[in-house]
Design a protein that fits this description.
The structure holds two protein chains of two kinds. Chain A is mainly α. Chain A has 17 helices and two strands. Classes of the chains: A mainly alpha, B alpha+beta.
Chain lengths: 541, 200
């Protein structure tokens, strides 16, 4: 199959993602430096909050969305062995989303949208910020439609056959994102855009926070699923072994998607506008969704063990040493799992209902999500890029050893950055402050940790530059005619011949999600229309 | 509407699902791991649920509305009623207003080892407050009263910090709370201007 058009489509998306990423990395390092108070000339809340808003938007919305779209197009084309459906539409979505990013960037960079990437009404930003963000999401919805159409077309052409696992996971993510983004879309379309344009006078911040919480948990699985996809479909093959179980992988993706949605109130534990019964219900669901991650950890480690033993590893732990540690995909998955273990531990603390009071809105929280998103998830984005780049540009990777150094430094930098960040949270430091001006002895204990974070950020920035340099050099190097690498998907130990329909399709799960969402969000949203609430007028920042 | 056929349909659906679930290939080791995972999750959920239902350990969740735009006209949160008050039964209530960029009153003194009910409201945007090293933490959402009950075990000077981005002056939004030994604490004199029926 001549997939030049698909490769160009994927590369364009991935470049937008990684350019956003490297810009945001520079902002991140500036932020830890500014926050520490080390250089007093840097001290400026207006620059800091503009930067932190832009950093959040670039990392959480632009890097992720464009990476997932580009990755999805290439996975769909290669795993189904068919061209991307309706490429003009896909390009339209790309340009629409990119236009949205530029539109949002103008108020962000000029300090007219310093509302952080989580919005926080009744503070309002310039309308262009919300409209730009909306266009980015609309572009991603088009991607979802293309993925689901390709999924359905393939199934129609090959009735009864199992959909390739890589495509199953990608299409599941598309469905998950449609459900996920509905919450924030309602908030932006009916509250924030009308408020910022002056069409309405007031909004209810309680309702806005509830709708945002709808999106806030499953969005992290939208970001994580490409990493899990790589765990299942790339890692076993790259390690030299087999996938432990194809069926369990499908089950894990299904449980992940179904239970990611009805549990968003763990972001609202400390909020006054929702009652404790609903919070407890969402809290229990939050623990249930740990199950697919525990299953994933088991399957990935079991697959690695098979590979290690096939390569001659002996004894209880001997197989770990015999793994190909110099393979970027294998190294990345080991480091990713290490960060997942610690990040998961922190996540269980956050999820623990009333215990959340100890860390809510403290520095612990950004420490947690940097470890689990920028660590666990993004290190797999790197590994995927290193794996796909030679296929996308038809040239060998510029430097494998540089890639290995980059992965190690990302892991070390992330450990040095996030460990003190967690400690600062336990010492009571609030997140989202640009400098420490509290006249209190407690703040003295924060200082050494803030200095450590500067070092961690610096290592991460260096690592990020190596990553971009390696990809750019690969693409710019002279073409070599002979080079032709094909994507390889891992084989399961037990090949799946046939699957029950609920492991091969989403229709029944769509219904389950609808029921669970009606239960967990129905009354909590409707209550705002029954209660005697008084809205808040718009405030600047 | 016929209930019986529907019931049969769903029972059949569940039976089929279960039979198919049994038929898919799941390794013995995977079964064991899933069982262990479920036990661990069950333990966590069990502890949290028992604490919530029987010991009353819950986050602040009293869904109570207030008009944040007119707090000065509100009986409870008018300026004279803010701060620490003790009612006839000896219950201590602390009423606080959060507004850019401080907590009002600026300084309060409360007794240690005493149950305190904090009632927080915002007069403008979203705020949050926590007192480090204690479990006094709540979001303060405009339009809602955030009520939280807690006890401070140790006397000392504690900062109260705004932990939610509320604007470019957010860093400067903080105040102090003095927790003093129970025996040294005296209830503040009741304000002469009280809200209530005779004031209307």
């Amino acid at each position: 199959m001549n997939d030049a058009a698909e490769r160009k489509l994927a590369l364009s998306h991935l470049w937008v993602a990684f350019i956003a990423f490297i810009l945001a990395c520079f902002m991140g390092e500036y932020q830890v430096l500014e926050r520490s108070g080390l250089i007093s000339a840097l001290d400026s809340p207006s620059v800091y909050f503009a930067s932190v808003s832009t950093h959040g938007v670039l990392m959480a919305f632009v890097l992720t969305t464009f990476f997932i779209m580009g990755f999805g197009y290439y996975i769909a084309a290669t795993s189904l062995k068919q061209p991307v459906w309706n490429k003009p539409l896909a390009w339209g979505a790309f340009w629409l989303a990119l236009f949205g990013v530029v539109l949002a960037a103008i108020p962000l960079l000029t300090g007219k949208a310093s509302v952080l990437y989580t919005f926080y009404p009744p503070i309002v930003a310039h309308a262009a910020f919300y409209i730009g963000a909306t266009l980015l999401v609309v572009g991603s919805w088009v991607w979802c439609v293309i993925m689901l159409v390709m999924f359905v077309q393939w199934k129609k052409a090959k009735p009864g056959q199992p959909v390739p696992l890589a495509m199953f996971a990608t299409a599941m993510n598309a469905l998950l994102w449609l459900w996920t983004s509905a919450g924030v879309a309602l908030e932006v379309l009916f509250q924030l855009i009308p408020l910022s344009l002056g069409w309405i006078d007031t909004v209810d911040p309680g309702l806005a926070r509830t709708l945002f919480a709808w999106t806030l948990h499953p969005i992290v699985y939208f970001w994580l699923i490409p990493a899990y996809t790589a765990f299942y479909v790339f890692v076993p093959k790259q390690a030299g072994g087999f996938l432990f179980s194809d069926e369990m992988a499908r089950l894990a993706f299904i449980v992940l998607a179904v239970f990611a949605l009805p549990i968003g109130f763990h972001h609202l534990y400390m909020d006054p506008e929702q009652a404790k019964g609903w919070k407890l219900l969402h809290g229990i669901g939050t623990f249930v969704v740990a199950l697919p991650t525990l299953v994933t950890g088991f399957t990935v480690i079991a697959s690695l063990e098979i590979a290690g033993r096939l390569r001659g590893g002996k004894g209880l732990f001997g197989w770990i040493g015999s793994l190909p540690w110099t393979n970027t995909m294998v190294l990345a998955v080991i480091l990713s799992l290490l960060m997942l273990i610690f990040g998961g531990f922190g996540g269980i603390v956050n999820a623990s209902y009333a215990m959340n009071a100890m860390i809510h809105n403290t520095a612990w929280v950004p420490g947690h999500f940097h470890l689990i998103f920028a660590g666990t998830t993004v290190i797999m984005y790197f590994a995927i890029a290193y794996y796909l780049w030679p296929m996308l540009v038809k040239k060998p990777l510029f430097s494998e050893s540089m890639a290995l150094v980059q992965l190690w430094t990302w892991f070390i930098g992330m450990s040095i950055l996030t460990t003190p960040w967690h400690v600062l949270g336990l010492l009571g430091q609030p997140r989202r402050i640009s400098s420490v001006v509290y006249n209190n002895l407690l703040t003295l204990s924060w200082k050494p940790y803030e200095l450590m974070m500067i070092l961690g950020g610096l290592i991460l920035l260096g690592s990020a530059c190596l990553f971009i340099y390696n990809l750019a050099k690969t693409q710019l190097s002279p073409a070599s005619e002979a080079f032709d690498r094909q994507i390889e998907f891992a084989e399961p130990i037990h090949a799946v011949e046939s699957l029950p329909e609920w492991l091969n399709d989403f229709k029944p799960w769509n219904k389950v999600i609808a029921v669970l969402m009606a239960i967990s969000f129905g009354y909590p949203i409707l209550q705002f229309f029954f209660m005697n609430t008084s809205g808040s007028s718009a405030w600047g920042f | 509407m016929q209930i019986e056929p529907l019931k049969q349909k769903y029972a059949q659906l569940l039976r089929d699902f279960y039979a198919q679930l049994r038929a898919i290939h799941i390794d013995q080791l995977e079964r064991k791991w899933i069982t262990i995972s479920l036990i661990v999750i069950g333990l966590f959920v069990g502890i949290i649920t028992i604490d919530a239902l029987f010991h009353g350990v819950n986050p602040p969740s009293k869904v109570e509305t207030v008009d944040s735009a007119s707090l000065h006209l509100n009986k409870e949160f008018a300026e004279d009623n803010l701060g620490v008050q003790v009612d006839d039964k000896g219950n201590v209530t602390v009423r606080m207003v959060a507004g850019r960029y401080s907590f009002f009153p600026k300084h309060i003194t409360v007794p240690a080892e005493t149950t305190l009910t904090f009632r927080w409201v915002s007069m403008d945007v979203l705020h949050g407050v926590h007192i480090p090293m204690t479990n006094m933490s709540t979001m303060i959402v405009p339009g809602y009263v955030a009520e939280i009950t807690t006890t401070f075990p140790k006397p000392g000077e504690y900062p109260m910090l705004c932990n939610e981005y509320c604007g470019l002056g957010h860093n400067h939004m903080w105040s102090n709370i003095s927790v003093i030994a129970k025996e040294n604490w005296t209830a503040p004199a009741k304000s002469s201007v009280k809200g209530g029926s005779n004031n209307e």
